[in-house]
């Protein structure tokens, strides 16, 4: 890869502040568009994007000249049932020139998707808050040992207090962005900027539809839907004119002082790629646009609402018992949120919560709140018996000479001098620039074998097969035709290219070729063009349930990856460090469960968060999606291959065992026929050639293997789903799991354990989600560690 291209791709990496919808825009879509731009460029400028049928008198390099000219000068489309217009103006009106510009336009589209992210990087520093450093430090403190963790929280707390207080001092300073004045002194600069960036994402993705419609010169408003409807109804490019494969080209040659005009017919093989690329992009951008619109609406409503901000802070303070339900305490929280944290402070806490979890956010909010109360002498506003006057878990050794004050109670002196925010101590940078595919396709510690069969092994197999078939189709020679003897020069190559992109039809050798065009069309075989695309789509479908699980579990507030990695590392350490690790993990589980059941769940409260079973419901839903997907794969393969068999793989195997080959059954035929027309001397000549589809030899073996593989995966997934439904919704399984580990841990006093004690322990402390986390730890680390954890939490 060129050095500058490699450097550019390295700059496209996930940020710390963003959510999944932001990454859909600036990260995933940008990478997809750049990959497609490189792919099309390779086909255009390394492969052979065009092949022309030239007159028989053309010799030497005349054919190559005509093909190069027609590619760079554009061609025009005319259906075969229409005469070539005599007027040059009408021919120019029908010209198609977009195929030359596809790589450039795809690269521009990628840049447009990345530009809002560049604008955020350019403008967010003007708030005076080093967002990146704050989130990096919060991430590094996520599962530190106690002393280091408390020290990091103190540093974060001090930095946020000083920075937010500094913002309140900067009256009169504001930044104008597109005629909108964002004031730092009101503490809404970051919040308005973040919502504005999300608005730009929505504007961009909507503009992409107009860009594609204008670039492709389509007359359909909902272009992707109409193209898909045309394909489903058998209306191909000769009728619709979309991405035409066969076009005409005029060019002039000076010869002996005269100008001779030639018209040749060309096959635009590149348009077969363009059709599939833009069909995929239209639906991808429709998905991205829908997600972006919903996400923007959610963030505007939540970030502009004082009620939402106060509810979020109150829910975290209730977890640590720093807040009760009295009216005075609620008013104190309102003052804390409106005059100390300000909208930007709440936004930063939301970023920290999304990236580092609820436990760290709760401790940080508790520390900020206690410092605010002490700093403004408000301890009399609350009951002194409450934890308001006690130190929060991270307050030991706090330097009280720093802290933020109530901007309403202690107004600023209005100084406008140059001020800068205090520097935040540097935190180790967690690299996020690994190879995207390698980072995405890896095993997760919480998964069982059935999950990995679906999202890992099946996805890898399908991607490998897609690459193999693509290499054979677009690098090798997938088709070879037997052409009449009078074909000369590049006519044979023209016929083979045309027959590959336009489909062929199968007629057994003991059957006469139908004379009616409709009868031939009914026997057409066109799936072999789409095999790599379909295999890639099937791989994506197998991976989507895992994406759903990662997305939903992340927003549920549980940081599974970190906690399970810590559990795995605890297996090989000394006894003292192991005991410390058990303390940290048990502390994390209890705080995470408490935050989920506190009554204010930020994301997806309808999934059972208050009952403490949100994570378990998400996990079972992901397994249901795995099962639905693998069953749907059989319907997709049957539909795609056009087979009349319901149990297609079994019947194909029976045919092979009985010696019934493709020539009799018609499955994956190797020898097919192809009709094409050529305009010559103002008339249309029809030709029929016989072709060998070598690619079908691969396709037969690939899909036979895939059918039996998916049959195996379907059986495993179905049994696994039933098993998890039983242990998730029948409480006795959780009781037996906890009882077993407690009896192993207690040994001598095991007989004193009662069902009531175990049920009370699960109901009050663990909840169904806590039991699920312990099951994950048992599977990925060891049952010994799970036993120690349960015993520690029980005690």
UniProtKB/TrEMBL annotation:
Family of this protein: Belongs to the pannexin family.
Transmembrane spans: 26-42, 96-115, 196-216, 277-300, 453-471, 525-544, 618-636, 702-724
Pfam families: Innexin (PF00876)
Keyword Transmembrane helix among record annotations: yes
Protein's cellular compartments: Cell junction, Gap junction; Cell membrane
Keyword terms of this UniProt record: Cell junction, Cell membrane, Gap junction, Ion channel, Ion transport, Membrane, Transmembrane, Transmembrane helix, Transport
Gene symbol of the encoding locus: inx
Xref: InterPro entries: Innexin
GO CC annotation terms, alphabetical: gap junction; plasma membrane
Example GO BP: monoatomic ion transmembrane transport
Listed Basic and acidic residues bias regions: 396-411
Disordered as annotated region, ranges: 383-418
Stated role: Structural component of the gap junctions.
Name the UniProt record assigns to this protein: Innexin
Membrane topology: Multi-pass membrane protein
Superkingdom of origin: Eukaryota
A GO molecular-function descriptor: gap junction channel activity
Main location per the UniProt record: other
Organism listed in the record: Trichuris suis (pig whipworm)
């Amino acid at each position: 890869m060129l050095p500058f291209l490699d450097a550019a791709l390295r700059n496209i990496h996930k940020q710390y502040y963003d959510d999944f919808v932001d990454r859909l825009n600036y990260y995933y879509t940008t990478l997809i568009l750049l990959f497609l731009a490189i792919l099309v460029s390779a086909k255009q400028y390394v492969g052979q994007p065009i092949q022309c049928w030239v007159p028989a008198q053309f010799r030497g390099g005349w054919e190559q000249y005509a093909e190069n000219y027609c590619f760079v000068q554009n061609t025009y489309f005319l259906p075969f049932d229409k005469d070539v217009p005599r007027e040059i103006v009408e021919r120019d009106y029908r010209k198609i020139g977009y195929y030359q510009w596809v790589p450039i336009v795809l690269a521009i589209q990628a840049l447009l998707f990345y530009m809002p992210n560049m604008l955020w990087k350019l403008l967010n520093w003007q708030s005076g808050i080093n967002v990146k450093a704050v989130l990096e430090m919060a991430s590094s403190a996520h599962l530190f040992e106690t002393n280091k963790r408390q020290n990091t929280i103190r540093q974060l707390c001090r930095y946020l207090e000083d920075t937010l207080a500094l913002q309140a001092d900067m009256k009169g300073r504001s930044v104008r962005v597109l005629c909108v004045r964002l004031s730092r002194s009101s503490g809404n600069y970051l919040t308005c900027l973040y919502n504005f960036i999300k608005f730009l994402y929505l504007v961009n993705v909507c503009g992409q539809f107009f860009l594609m419609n204008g670039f492709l010169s389509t007359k359909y408003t909902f272009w992707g839907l109409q193209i898909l409807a045309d394909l489903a109804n058998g209306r191909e490019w000769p009728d619709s004119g979309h991405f035409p494969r066969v076009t005409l080209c005029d060019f002039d040659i000076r010869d002996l002082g005269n100008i001779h005009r030639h018209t040749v017919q060309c096959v635009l093989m590149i348009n077969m790629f363009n059709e599939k690329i833009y069909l995929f992009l239209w639906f991808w951008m429709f998905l991205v646009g829908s997600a972006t619109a919903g996400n923007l609406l959610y963030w505007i409503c939540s970030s502009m609402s004082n009620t939402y901000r106060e509810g979020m802070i109150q829910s975290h303070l209730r977890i640590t018992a720093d807040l009760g339900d009295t009216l005075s305490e609620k008013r104190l929280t309102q003052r804390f949120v409106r005059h100390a944290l300000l909208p930007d402070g709440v936004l930063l806490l939301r970023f920290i919560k999304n990236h580092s979890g609820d436990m760290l956010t709760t401790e940080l909010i508790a520390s900020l709140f206690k410092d605010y109360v002490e700093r403004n002498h408000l301890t009399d506003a609350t009951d002194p018996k409450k934890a308001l006057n006690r130190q929060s878990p991270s307050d030991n050794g706090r330097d009280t000479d720093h802290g933020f004050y109530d901007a309403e109670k202690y107004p600023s002196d209005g100084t406008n001098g140059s001020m800068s925010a205090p520097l935040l101590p540097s935190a180790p940078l967690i690299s996020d620039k690994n190879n995207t595919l390698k980072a995405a396709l890896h095993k997760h510690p919480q998964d069982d074998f059935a999950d990995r069969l679906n999202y890992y092994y099946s996805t890898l197999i399908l991607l490998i097969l897609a690459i193999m078939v693509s290499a054979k189709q677009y690098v090798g020679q997938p088709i070879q035709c037997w052409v009449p003897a009078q074909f000369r020069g590049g006519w044979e190559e023209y016929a083979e290219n045309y027959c590959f992109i336009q489909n062929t039809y199968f007629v057994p050798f003991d059957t006469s070729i139908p004379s009616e065009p409709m009868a031939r069309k009914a026997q057409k075989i066109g799936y072999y063009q789409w095999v790599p695309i379909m295999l890639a789509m099937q791989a994506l479908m197998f991976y989507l349930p895992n994406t759903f699980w990662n997305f939903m579990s992340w927003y549920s507030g549980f940081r599974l990856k970190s906690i399970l990695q810590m559990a795995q590392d605890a297996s090989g350490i000394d006894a003292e460090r192991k005991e410390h690790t058990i303390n940290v993990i048990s502390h994390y589980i209890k705080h995470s469960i408490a935050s989920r059941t506190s009554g204010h769940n930020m994301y997806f409260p309808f999934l059972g968060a208050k009952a403490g079973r949100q994570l378990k419901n998400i996990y079972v839903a992901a397994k249901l999606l795995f099962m639905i997907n693998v069953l749907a794969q059989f319907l997709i393969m049957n539909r795609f291959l056009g087979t009349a068999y319901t149990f297609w793989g079994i019947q194909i195997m029976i045919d092979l065992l009985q010696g019934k080959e493709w020539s009799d059954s018609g499955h994956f035929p190797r020898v097919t026929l192809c009709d094409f027309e050529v305009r010559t001397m103002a008339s249309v000549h029809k030709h029929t050639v016989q072709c060998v589809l070598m690619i079908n030899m691969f396709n037969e073996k690939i899909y036979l293997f895939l059918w039996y593989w998916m049959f195996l995966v379907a059986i495993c997934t179905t049994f696994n789903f039933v098993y998890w439904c039983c242990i998730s919704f029948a409480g006795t399984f959780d009781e037996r799991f906890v009882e077993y580990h407690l009896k192993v841990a207690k040994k001598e006093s095991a007989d004193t354990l009662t069902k009531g004690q175990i049920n009370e322990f699960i109901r009050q402390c663990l909840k169904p989600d806590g039991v699920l986390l312990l099951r994950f730890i048992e599977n990925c680390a060891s049952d010994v560690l799970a036993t120690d954890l349960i015993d520690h939490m029980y005690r």
